[in-house]
Amino acid sequence: MMKNYSLLLFLSIISIISSCEDGRVPQKQKVLTDTNPTLVFPVFSGDSAYSYVKAQTDFGPRVPNTDEHILAGNYLVDKLSEYADTVYIQEFMARAYNATLLNGKNIIGSFNIKKKKRIFLAAHWDSRPYADQDKDELNHHQAIDGANDGASGVGILIEIARLLQEQQPEVGIDIVMFDLEDYGVPEFETRRSNSQESWALGSQYWAKNPHLFNYNAQYGILLDMVGAKDAQFRMEYFSMQYAPHIVKKVWKIASNAGYGDYFLLEDGSSVLDDHYFINQYANIPTIDIIQHDPNTASGFYKHWHTKNDNLENIDAVTLKAVGQVLIEVIFREK
Ligand code: AHN
Ligand code: ZN
C-alpha cells in the first residue's frame, strides 16, 4: 500500500514536471513541495466544535462569582476528564479592578505527560460582565454570552481534546482554559485608569504559578474570537514581537492547507490578551490567533463586548478552519 502510493506520487511528480515547459513545478502544485506528503491528519469537525460552543452559551453568561460560571466550569472539567490523560484544576482568587474578590478556576487537560517537548493551546472560558461596547447604553451593565469572545476558542479546544483521545501527535499537548480574562475596567468607569493588569487575571496567575512546578512548553497558541463568519486573522503585534517563528509557521501551514482567506499574511495591531502576560511572566513564546477587523472602531470582531456576541453569529466553517490548522500544526511537530 505504502509502496504503491510512493510510486503513484513519483509518477505524478514526473508528469507534472514534464508538463511544465521550463521544467519548474508550477505554483499551484504546492503539495509536491511538501517534505512529507504521506502525513495524514485527524479530521477536525466544525459541527462538533460548534456543539461545544453552544453547550457553553446554554449556561448563560459565564460571569465570575455566579452560578452559571460554576456550572460551566464543572462542564469543562467533565469534558476534559473525558478526553485528556490528566486534568489539573487550579483554583485561585484574584482582585478585580473594583476590588471585588473573584473566584477563579483555570482548567488544564494534558496529553502524553511523559513527553518533555510540549505545546500548549489556550483560550479563556469566562465571559464579560459588561456589554460596554453595545450601541445601546442600557446594555452596558449587562453580561454578554461571549459566544465568540471566549466560547469559540474553548469549543475548538474541546474538539481537539476529543481527537487527541483517539490519536496523539509526537509532542505532548496541554490544553489550558483560562478563567478571569474578561473582567477588565469597563468603558463607563471613567474614574479609573484603564489598568492593563485588570485584564487576563487567570493567565497572569497561571504564568506566575504554573499548574506544575517547572512547567515548560516549546510554545503556546492562544485562541480568542475565532468563530465568526468570514473571520480574518492578522499577525498580531505582540505575537510577532515574542514568537515570530511560531506566527510564521502557523500562517504558512494555514495557507498551504487552503485557509489563506482566514489567515492573512498581514500585520495586525497589538492586543493585550492572555498571551502577553505568558510571554512576559512565564517566558514561553506564545501567539494569539484573534480576529482583527480594520472596518470597526474597536479594530476587533464587530460584535465585540456587545449583546450580539451570541451563538447566532458563530459559524462552524470558521471553527473548522482554525481547528484544522491547529491539528496540522501539532501533528507536524517532531
Ligand atoms: C483589551 O482590549 C484591553 N484587551 C482585549 C483582550 C480581550 C478582551 N480579548 C477578549 N476580550
Ligand atoms: Zn472580551
Describe this structure in words.
This protein is α/β, with parallel strands linked by helices and 334 residues long. Helix content is 36%, strand content 16%. The chain is built from nine helices and eight strands. The chain has helices spanning 2-19, 46-57, 67-83, 147-166, 201-208, 237-242, 244-256, 274-282, 316-332; strands at residues 86-95, 101-111, 118-124, 172-178, 219-224, 233-235, 263-267, 286-290. The strands form two sheets. It has a six-stranded mixed beta sheet, sandwiched between helices. The protein has a two-stranded parallel ribbon with strand order 6-7. The longest helix is centred in the middle third of the chain and has 20 residues, at 147-166.
| Strand order, sheet with most strands | 1-2-4-3-5-8
Q: What structural category characterises the helix and strand content?
A: alpha/beta
Question: Which hetero ligands occur in this complex?
Answer: N-[2-(1H-imidazol-4-yl)ethyl]acetamide, zinc ion
Largest sheet: 6 strands, mixed
Classify the beta-strand content into a percent band: 15-25%
Helix proportion: 25-40%
Shape call: globular
| Cα-to-Cα separation, first versus last residue | 24 Å
Element string (H = helix, E = strand): HHHEEEHEHEEHHEHEH
Task: Supply the number of helical segments.
Answer: 9
Instruction: State mean pLDDT (0 to 100 scale).
Output: 91
User: What does the radius of gyration come to?
Assistant: 21 Å
Low-confidence stretches: 7-33
| Number of DSSP-assigned strands | 8
